Amino acid sequence: MLSDMAITRQDLESDRLRTSLCSTPVASSLLPEADVERSLCDALGARPETPGLNGDVWLFGYGSLIWNPMVVHTDRRLATVHGYHRGFYLYSRINRGTWDNPGLVLGLDRGGCCTGMVFRIPGHVIEQEFRVLWRREMLTGAYHPRWLRVRVGNAPDAPEQRALAFVMNREHSAYAGRLPDERVVACLRHACGLYGPAREYLQQTLLGLTTNGVDDPYLGRLWRQLQESDAAETNGAATRASVASADAAESIIQPHETV
């Protein structure tokens, strides 16, 4: 079994991640290899010919791809997709949680808009890089790969282009739907999977967006609530410890009646 935070590009290239999970409780949730391959071929067959890219393609990242793309790329830029928004809609029992204590990760779901990053993948390595992507993102089939229209850059009149993005599969058993903030925070606080803690996923995504000048009020709100929850737990523990200490001291100094 792979250890926490041990996933590398080499693991994906060799398909070591899937192999390591075949003898675990999550094995039944893995998308059959034939289905993974079929999905990959369909996406490759539908790739757009975008003027000016000379055979290259864009990949749209809205979560961990922003700060850990793991794919070969020659350019990265801010981009916005309309018709989809970012949210913690996917229970994670592998990457950021376990079967018994699932975390949450982000997905693109219908409605609104989402600003993230696009990565330009050279035409001569598209199949190679997509295979790495599929082994990372399509392990359980929780996403649908889609060529979405994106506006690259900050200019409001910038022409739309197509970029590959992974959107939520609402029929998947791990689809969480719209959860209240308190439920999201509870899932993020202590869950940890092969890629590390769920809370780190939120922190790194928020940092990656902020570093590129993107303000996401939803993620910022969740991070503040997570910190407040941590502080409340720490204060509560300190109070309980103080009361216990006082009770112990009182029992020592309190004179006992004798009969």
Automatic annotation (TrEMBL):
Single annotated GO MF: glutathione specific gamma-glutamylcyclotransferase activity
Key word Cytoplasm present: no
Record-listed E.C. numbers: 4.3.2.7
InterPro entries: ChaC (IPR006840), GGCT-like (IPR013024), GGCT-like_sf (IPR036568)
One protein family per Pfam: ChaC
GO cellular component: cytoplasm
Top EC category: lyase
Keyword set, alphabetical order: Lyase
Gene Ontology BP term (one): glutathione catabolic process
Signal peptide: none
PANTHER family in the cross-refs: CATION TRANSPORT PROTEIN CHAC-RELATED, GLUTATHIONE-SPECIFIC GAMMA-GLUTAMYLCYCLOTRANSFERASE 2
UniProt protein name: glutathione-specific gamma-glutamylcyclotransferase
